[in-house]
Target: Energy-coupling factor transport system ATP-binding protein
Amino acid sequence: MIVSLKNISYRYPLEKESVIHNVSFSFEKGKVYGMLGENEAGKTSICNIIRGFIPNFFQGELTGEVFIKGKAISEYTVGELSSIVGYSFQNPFTQISGVKETVEEELAYGMENLGVSPEKMRRKVDELIELFHLQPLVNKNPYELSGGQKQRVALASMLSLEPEVVILDEPTSQLDPKSTEDIFEIVQILKEQGKTILLVEHKVDLLAQYCDEIFVMQKGEIKFSGKTEDVLTNPEILQFGGQLPQATLFCLKMQERGKQFAKLPLSVDEAVSVLRNGGLA
Ligand SMILES: Nc1ncnc2c1ncn2[C@@H]1O[C@H](COP(=O)(O)OP(=O)(O)OP(=O)(O)O)[C@@H](O)[C@H]1O
Model:
């Protein structure tokens, strides 16, 4: 397991109540995990625990154990951790370094800080420009970009350090449908590269399409976890802050009106094929 959390509970400094309660899960290398849950469920806190930001920056009270690649997270330096676990924020604005004047320089910034050789840096920057379609933007100031462009640059910068685990915390919450599609294209590429990905995202239809497994969190606890096709077709998740894909919801409504399904479908294509077969396939 590349990431393991065992019985994690956490209380922020100066707060009376814990916000994470006895959470345990593991990530298998190369799989894509989706995390769903209403606001304040504790999703970002969990991300911050996996990347060591809690307790390195937010102290408070953390109990339980976190292992990254089989080693206790406390045995890694901050630098070592940041090159294994990459994290992308909800708001790309906060992720732009603010000290570089062009997109190209921004892409090299993280590598510069880690002392990567100029040749390797050049190769990596070129690769990222190509992968993220950034050619038209290379000489622009990162602050002059649109939200979607900023998010692409922020993601590319994070990936310059070649993390094995990639955490995307609501990467599309401020993006229009086209930019959202661009980000998910990148998720697909990362998936093909064998990265282990945690995707915190409210767009459940996209989670259904890309994730191997899903967690549903509520009030600091994991209420459901398992294979995407099992969790996202389980109407019980609706009572715990989870959502169902549109096609699943549609078939659930039909089921409530008497149509029978052996198993609720996860996507529109699946729904069409099940309905063509009369519903019970
Ligand atoms: N720095 C902090 N200090 C104190 N409490 C915090 C801090 N950050 C988050 N919290 C609290 O921890 C709880 C979980 O917040 P968290 O941001 O992890 O949830 P979330 O599921 O990511 O929410 P959202 O979807 O709104 O981003 C909330 O009650 C929040 O108010």
User: Anything to note?
Assistant: Residues 148 and 179 are 5 Å apart (CA to CA). The longest strand covers residues 3-11.
